[in-house]
# Entry
Amino acid sequence: MPIQLEKHSIQAWALINRKYLGKGVRVKRFRKPTRCQIRNRVLLAILMVKDIKLSTLAEELSISSRSVSAWVYEGRIPGKKNMENVCRHLGYPRHILFNETLLEQNPIICQPTHSKFMRRTITRSPVSNHILTGLCMVYDLSVSDVSKWIEVHPGTFRKWLHQGTLPSISFQQKAEDFFRIPKTILFADCVL
# Structure
């Protein structure tokens, strides 16, 4: 005698699925940004490396999380009081965190192939260049791929990230051309 399956209505299936779905789902710390929606790449890069959520920064500065989201995703510039607070909190001057020319341009980098940022890059040894490392995180670029694309040895690129080594002017120019951010901002951690 064949087994008859019970017929469930769509509402019953929804209740059954609700019971099992969503359990143990890992919520990512940052939403995966698309290139067209990030206006302040430098601020997001610093926040990602320091592992500070936008809502956490908003709480620490006693402002709304919508304001912080507007700084990152819409390119808005905070008022004088909030500007001083965020600069003091993150340890960077205004011209690095909120550079008006970068906020207006919002260029897309030209990555030849797909790449994947390896989290172990920042977990194995401390990072000195937060901006450069954070940009690799924002664009989900592996260190070895970026070093290949800008024609520098991967070990040298890792020195830029972990030891805060200031590269020669020609290598600074190659990094500036790839990320489309001025070298004074890309290597600000080496100078500050």
User: Anything to note?
Assistant: The chain has a mean pLDDT of 79. The two ends are 80 Å apart (CA to CA). The chain has 14 helices and no strands.
